[in-house]
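The freezer alarm interrupted the setup, so I double-checked each line after restarting. Inputs confirmed:
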Amino acid sequence: MKGYRKMDLDVEKAAEFLELPSSRLSEIIEKGNLKQNWDEYNRIYRFEGHAPQLEDGSVLIDNSGSFELIRGFPKIKRAMLLEPALKNNFSDLTSVAVEEKMNGYNIRVVDYKGELIAFTRSGHVCPYSTERVRNFLDRDFFEEHPDIVVYGEMTGPENPYVQKHVYGIESLDLFVFDMRYKDTGKALEIHRRRKLAEKYGFNQVNLLGEFNIKEAPVRITNIIRELGKIGHEGVVIKDPKMVLQPIKYTCSESNRSDLQQAFKFYNEAGRDYLYSRVIREGFQSHEWEENEEDFRKRCLLLGESILRPMKETIAKVQSGERISDDFIIRVRNKSVIYKFRSYLERFGLHVVLGKIEKKGNEYTAEFRKINKSTNDKTLAMLEGQLWS
Amino acid sequence: MKGYRKMDLDVEKAAEFLELPSSRLSEIIEKGNLKQNWDEYNRIYRFEGHAPQLEDGSVLIDNSGSFELIRGFPKIKRAMLLEPALKNNFSDLTSVAVEEKMNGYNIRVVDYKGELIAFTRSGHVCPYSTERVRNFLDRDFFEEHPDIVVYGEMTGPENPYVQKHVYGIESLDLFVFDMRYKDTGKALEIHRRRKLAEKYGFNQVNLLGEFNIKEAPVRITNIIRELGKIGHEGVVIKDPKMVLQPIKYTCSESNRSDLQQAFKFYNEAGRDYLYSRVIREGFQSHEWEENEEDFRKRCLLLGESILRPMKETIAKVQSGERISDDFIIRVRNKSVIYKFRSYLERFGLHVVLGKIEKKGNEYTAEFRKINKSTNDKTLAMLEGQLWS
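Predicted 3D structure, all chains:
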């Protein structure tokens, strides 16, 4: 049994709401798999580490004894070979809808005590995302649809996690890609969801087409080639009725861009993260029946996406600099800058807050995340220490 | 506490010999970190999983109550950047000796009840290696030096683990690279070891030179470039007196050759194994101050060593074949073929024994190791299953 902080939660009532035996919920709490949020959100709890029937990052909100459940993001599985994956998973459909998979970070938005709040994938209330969605989304929607959770991608260059300039966004924007009912997690049909989003003026991910299932492999392959050329990430292929599980598929350029970023911080990068991106290249090359010239081009680009950032990191550290992950956030309320810094520090990140500037009625703030592990390892090698 | 088989070992006596409290040895046994061998070698025990002060794979031999300890291979650490590593680790020396690191598998040889036996890195008695060393090594050495363990590399194409044709070896041969005293693990000085090996007609790894410490980085870099061109693995840089720990350094060609083999069986390959080989390329490219053209060549070759074998595996599985790791062994005594098959099966490997042929006074036997995980995963992807 791991240590845990005494919770304010009424376990009996919460268990009843979750339709779990209260002994089961107590067990989840004792294992540290239900965590309480802090500060003004301390009546919000998140599930971590595989609670039964609940996706990781599912959130339980305690409104003075009446509960709400915000289910976590259902994991979207990946096609390695597009054509067989479509055939095998969507054979009962006549058509599939293809929406763009944007490169940013996922959030879920709900109304909480009369204001919008944004949860990250893990179920934390992110202060930056929360401040932003209050600017991005019309609260009327949430008042009129209190039973719906909005799922979206936070995308753009002023982004703490994934900075992308390819979407023509100046700062940051939210693109809705899903709406689901609280409690059940059931998704709205695509056309209903897109209409609702349009009605309330929400940005949404591009609908790239709805294709007859037979044509879909060729059509989607063409889309992927085009998206790749402009540096976009990929697609999510969906049952228009949202009954079958969606499937994701990404561009080679996006896999390589991930590798570039990861090998800059080579000693921090997860081995599985690197492996999976390399593996995708092998399957796509096979499915696309590349000739020797195109194949060699893919090999060169793959090799470059690995070695170039790594070499740059070593050279930089040798020259006396230190590598870091730099980003900018933009807020209306200056105090959110400091709140966000504390938020990152709670995760054990080493963060340096740089210049704060006024931009119109907003503020930008520069952040540096220091990647201690890669800096230290590189320095050790340069000093002649041995690998292991 | 894990389950364990009752051992025949006299724990009190063994502990006394090992200079451990017997409660400590009991604990090691209870944790399953001392394993008993089987069949005619059932009085031989091997240490697994970090017993204190004992390298993994250290072997304890019980000669009816009098004990011998054969220490495991001391881990040889790796230089990522050659010049700083030499400066940092060998600054007290005037010169270093450079021996070739051959590509095969390591064994340790001792005399046991009047016959030679060969231990693998993990401390198992390998029946194939044991039969071979009886042909390769003169037993007189071991009778005259019962306190010395011979460490060598089993190299050549008729090899269950690493098949290499680059050394001009027809079948298999043993190349001595170390001799150490039993019990203490202290190594013989290089010149003494090489003279002894020569006297008894043992093959040994090439001594590529003894270099002044100031010249060593350039000289070794040149050696590495030349070894790479002929597909050899690399070098081990040693204190001639064998007091300081040796350092290994390998050719880019060898890193890539490892990757080629690993990505053929991409779903079996260890993530850390892949990662470490890629990382070496980044450091070498930095240290060699490659121009853009050479750098791009390295990137291309790296990419090809990853994607080409993977693509071939997918194509092969699609065409209905199954991938496998095929090798040949050659023995004098036919029964060793079956003994070796049982030996591999004990490790849970799926092995198919193929054609057995008489070659002069010896027999060759074909083996196939079936790589179930990569075959199954590839087939699943071809059938349209999703990655995860």
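Quick read of the result. Residues 286 and 316 of chain A are 37 Å apart (CA to CA).
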